[in-house]
Amino acid sequence: MCASWNIPADERRAEVIVRMLVRDEVWISQDGVEVVVARRQLTDLADKLYFLDQAFTADARDVVEALCGQE
Q1: pTM of the entire structure?
Q2: For the chain: N or C, fewer Cβ within 10 A?
Q3: What tens digit of pLDDT does each residue of 36-67 get?
Q4: Dihedrals phi, psi of 3, to nearest 5 degrees
């Protein structure tokens, strides 16, 4: 393992652990659920997470509600 980051728990969700396992994989874990992401997937994943983070800002609340309403 090269590096590890712990994202603290909040009132609703457990801690998230992110680890770089080898050169080409990242391991993300929360509450016993593990996801291994290949290096070639990281840019796409980061883009989507950034979009979601921005969507949860107060001025974008309508966008979030619209996206969640299309399930």
Answers
A1: 0.70
A2: C
A3: 999 999 999 998 888 888 777 766 677 777 77
A4: -155, 155
Q: What's the CA gap between 47 and 30, in Å, rounded? A: 21
The string over 50-61, giving b where at least 16 C-beta atoms fall within 10 Å of a residue's C-beta and e elsewhere, is eeeeebeeeeee
Dihedral-angle region of residue 7 (phi above 0 means left; psi in -120 to 50 means alpha; beta otherwise): beta
Q: The tokens of 43 are what?
A: 């840019």
The span from the CA of 64 to the CA of 55, in Å, is 6
Q: How far apart are the first and last CA of the chain?
A: 37
Amino acid at position 69, single letter? G
**Residue 38: helix, strand or coil by DSSP?**
strand
